[in-house]
Amino acid sequence: xxxxxxxxxESTAMQHLLGIKxxxxxxxxxxxxxxxxxxxxxxxxxxxxxALRDVTIANVFFENSTRTRISFELAxxxxxxxxxNFSSSSSSVSKGETLIxxxxxxxxxxxxxxxxxxxxxxxxxxLARHVNSKIINAGDGTHEHPxxxxxxxxxxxxxxxxxxxxxxxxxGDILHSRVALSNIYCxxxxxxxxxxxxxxxxxxxxxxxxxxxxxxxxxxxxxxCDVANMLRIQHERQDVKYFPSLREYASLYGLTMDKLNAxxxxxxxxxxxPINRGVEVTSEVADSNQSIILQQVENGVAIRMAVLFLxxxxxxxxxxx
Amino acid sequence: MAKPRLILDNAAIDLIIxxxxxxxxxxxxxxxxxxxxxxxxxxxxxxxxxxARVKEFFPENNLxxxxxxxxFHRDDVGRGEQILVPKETYLRFSTENIKIILVDDVLYTGxxxxxxxxxxxxxxxxxxxxxxxxxxxRYNRELPISPDYAGATVDSRSTGEKVKVDWLDxxxxxxxxxxxxx
Lengths: 321, 182
Fold this sequence. Notes:
A: 40% helix, B: alpha/beta, three-stranded antiparallel sheet
């Protein structure tokens, strides 16, 4: 059984983690069961394992990040790996160095894996084709954010026992959200139903092609769902005005205690962070016991440990692209 | 491929389980807390049976039971062909100041036991750690490790042989299999 599983992982996209789209269901389940064990490790007195003591990992971030970066770094350190951090603002990128050159320079210092966040969609896939290293996507523009989707699905699995058959609403700025796209792929692969909800201007054209439902009415969506994943309004990616004012957005699509209390059942609230308190969710909702936002953050470390551990084992010379 | 040779049949294994259960009780000091910890994946079949046998003989005994996965502490992560996927660690007690008996089915190179010694201290500093194994394959050790309790010994210098343990409900068997020469 273990052998069969291993072979499946070997044959799939597990050489890199570029996105959920290319990941098969058995790999997702393997990541989850591995994360279960890492959760045990991070809750044990020592909180560490020496599993990746001979691996060096570079965290290369071309965009700002708090949670993802700390989460990756903690995951790496708890696995015993050596970590180097790189951020574009204090680097030679501002002197005109290309992405491939930057990464190749880092790799020539004997780095085994790269965790990359980049503002351009497809940057990770591009890099995976052109450099001899394992790449983990930590968010590429508006494209994918696979570890976030995995930890979201893992948190749902932890709360409900299974993701299959659950009704998940993704609410807010779908157009600019890599979290939304990765979540759609991941949740659907695990058998959940997904409904997107937000103002018409923030729902991508023909997104229904992915097999999701679209709703413009928050209250109806909340009544339908088991879990509501409230996305942040991504001001930094909005080049034009997509809605008249934040106040109007908050009143129509922001989640308040009143809206939750009006429902016939109790739903679970998730948020990938960072929260704009008072916009997509009020403080009251974010801090309520229906919210699993902090559990998501905790699970993020376990999921990233699992991804790093599984990926680090596939040999470098087997990378085929 | 040569025919697998039967080393231990069900009756012999059953006898070993009873012997080990009695030995554990005999060695236990009156005020001592002892825990049996099976090593994942194959040691747990053996450890569960030993624990059940102790409880059968001495229902009042306060023997603790756990299962330990050593994947994260192995020294060959990323070196083999296979991807290592961890199994469950079930240890609901602190190992601080108690006696631990690690249980595995076959002791071969000793590397799993080294990893287990590494893994067990994550749960506290045990007073003492012992090793119990169904089969001790002598002359194949790569580390200075030897069992405190061995069910049977297999003396083979050949690397082309494999010891296989079949755990079935009422028909446990240990086989010596000669691998096909390449």
